[in-house]
Write the C-alpha cells for this entry.
Amino acid sequence: MSLDFTLAIPTYNGANCLPKLLDKLRQQTGVEQISWEIIVVDNNSSDNTAQVVQEYQANWLPGVPVKYIFEPEQGAAFARLRAVKEAQGELIGFLDDDNLPNPDWIAQAYLFAQEHPQAGAFSGQIHGEFEVEPPENFQRIQAFLAIREHGSTPYQFEPQNLRLPPAASLVVRKQAWCESVPSRPTLTGKLPGVMIQGDDYEPLLYMYKAGWEIWYHPALHTYHQIPRWRLERDYLLSISRGCGLATCQLRMVNAQPWQKPLIVLRNFLGSLRRVVLQLIKYRGQLNNNLIAACEMEFFLGSLMSSFLVLKRRRLI
C-alpha cells in the first residue's frame, strides 16, 4: 500500500531521546488528509530502544502505523538505506532522534513537495537548543552540529560547491532516492573510532547528478537538542575534523574520471592555503580560541582527505 509520507527515525541507543520526539509526532497538525506512517530504524542499539517503541505502538494514533525495524549494520547511512527500503510513503522525512519538529512539520513538508515536483530532497531550519551556553562565536562552526538557519527565503542548494543540508531534518522523494542512490554508500557516518562525516551529503549528490533539485524550505522548523558534552572541546575538535575528512571524497561523487586527479590536487592546495592562512591569522591563539581551533581542524581534515582518496584508490 502506498502512503503519502513516511517519517523515518534512524536511532542508536536512543531510548532516552525517542519519547520526546514521538510525543512531538503525536501532536502533528494539518495531517488529516495525509496518509502517513512512522518507521523507527534501530541501528544496532544496546539499550531498551525496542521496548520504548513497543510501548508507543500499544497506544498510538489510529490509522498511523508505527513500525520498528532493526538494522544490524552499523552506520547512519545504512539506517537511512534501510528506512528507504521499508518506507511506504512517496515522501520520506528523516528526523534524528534528538531533533524535535514543529507541530506543522509534516504538513509543511508535504505541501512544499507538491509545489516543487522537481525537488528530490529539501530541508529547513534547524535551530539549536543547548543544555549549556555555547562558546562565543559558535555560529561560525554550528553547521558541524547540524544547526542551519538560512533566513526566510526558499532557494536551491549548490551541490556542486558541497552546499547541502544535513540528514538530521531532511525530506526526500522516494523515487529520487531509488532512481539515483547506490545500494552501498562510500561514507557510512560516525562509527566507534571513526568520525568521518559526509554520509548525509553523499545521497544528495547522486540525486543532483540525476537531475533532481535540492531545496531549502524556511517554514520547516526543527530543534536540535545539544547536550553539554557536545560542546566540550575534544568532541568539537573531533567532529570538525571529521567533516573535513569527507571533503575530497564528496567532490569525487559526480566527477568524471579525467577530473579526479585535478580534484585531488585542487583540494590539497586549497586546504593547504586555508591551513596556512589560519595559522597566520591566529598565531599563538589556537590553544585558547576554541572556534578558531575547530576551523583549523576542519581545514586539516580537508587536507588529509586528499590522501585518504589516494590511499583508497591505491595510488599511495
In short: The chain is about 40% helix and 20% strand. The chain has two domains: 3-231, 235-312. The two ends are 50 Å apart (CA to CA).
